[in-house]
Amino acid sequence: MKTLLEARDVDVRIGALRVLDRVNFRLEPGEIVTIVGPNGSGKSTFLRTLIGAHQPTSGTVTRADGLRIGYIPQKLQIDSTLPITVARFLNLPSRVGATKVREALAQAGVGDLAQRPMVGLSGGQFQRVLLARALLASPDVLVLDEATQGLDQTGSASFYRQIEEVRQTLGCAVLMVSHELHVVMAASDRVICLNGHVCCEGAPEHVASAPEYRALFGTGTQGALALYRHDHDHAHDEAGNCVHDHQEAHG
Amino acid sequence: MSYLDDFLVRAALAGIGVALAAGPLGCFVVWRRMAYIGDATAHAAILGVALALALSISVSAGIMVVCLLMATAVSGMSGRGLSGDALLGVMAHGTLAFGLVGVSFLQGNRIDLNSYLFGDILAVSPTDLGVIWGGVLIILGLLWWRWSALLTSTMSEDLAFAAGINPRREQFVLTVALALVVAVAIKVVGALLIAALLIIPAATARSLARSPETMAVLAALIGAASALGGLGAAFAFDTPTGPTIVSLAAVFFTVSAMTRLVWGVRGT
Fold first, then answer.
1. Which of A84, A135, A141, A144 to mutate to test the interface with B (most CBs of B within 10 A)?
2. Which of A84, A93, A115, B88 is the most exposed place for a label (fewest CB within 10 A)?
3. Residue A76 to residue B156, Cβ atoms within 8 A
4. Which residues cross the membrane (chain B) (predicted)?
């Protein structure tokens, strides 16, 4: 099968700021890729560029013909003055019908919420509704932009389990940005560290072989920070192709 | 069309027309938290009046152009994260003040500034009525045509993009509708109270509605009821019509808010 998404030498400038610097990237069918990086490293901009919400200043983004993207944003701020049920929300912008809505909600693990108002949902329910919305497109790739921000650890772990389950059923690729590496890492085929440019990328097993990574599982939320230390320590080659030195200090 | 000879009939039709357009549009103003942008646009109308008089062009056209520029400028600012309350305030009141100063230079035109500030619904001519209803139908047509796309981009720009909708374009549709509603409503309630006609009926409808569509329809009906009732009350008590219409709308809002409070209806 052909590559779903490809970025070649993508530069993005916002004002005078160079947010992305010659980023190269490929996403193959069925693959799970996680993008990590410190705040302000251009992760969200990169995702938005890939899905076409943002134009690269130079370089090219290629999407496979007829590629269907299921996009799951960070928690939306729906104004409490907007009365809308989950079912109606899923029928926007175009009507998909009650059956598809029911199926998508069931697949996302929230089959009983169709008639509930959006503004009354909990964080975890809300994100699952967004997942259901993404599933309506029968996506080739699910794109998650820090989709579990604001959820507690149990909540986000269970959300990612749901994603994993959906992927096994649908066989779609998953591309996600996350801070919670200790949660998503195990399921990822590939991890990319972005800090304006691609710092390093590699299979998680390679990354996991680092002693810092072993510390990750034992130390809970410190894990992600530990991994950054790993990613920015270029002493070990097996973690991926480290491009050059990093000026920034993380953690 | 002899019944149009009656100024009260014309006033009623003008009020209903503006309310029907302002209600649904006002829902978007409320949902998108654009209340202050609506206010700024309406205030800029006075500058439009001054420019139109100075250039001897149609006042409606002058209002339309200035409001369109103002609404584009302020919504562009908010899109870039530059919108400070203060900056919006400077633009809203700056254009209002420059408009007032400008009109004072043109007093030779024996223009009645009050009618633009507070409305003059009893002086609506058959031609005005045509302009008002023309504008109203365009606004309702725009909202009808773009409804789903507008609603989607109101909830999330990212989701809109993902669904192939350009939220910038939808924002522009709202901007045009906003400028239009100011241009047609200025005769009815005046520049100072147009934003009230957008926000109050929509806010009143909120507690009664379970879907965006019913909220829009209810807002239009509540606005129309305010216009008719306000017109009657102004006639009975000899009060200024525009402010009376807005006062009645505010009473409706208070009653609906109280009812909700007393009955403990949840805000969902």
1. A84
2. A115
3. yes
4. 12-31, 43-74, 86-106, 118-145, 176-203, 215-237, 243-263
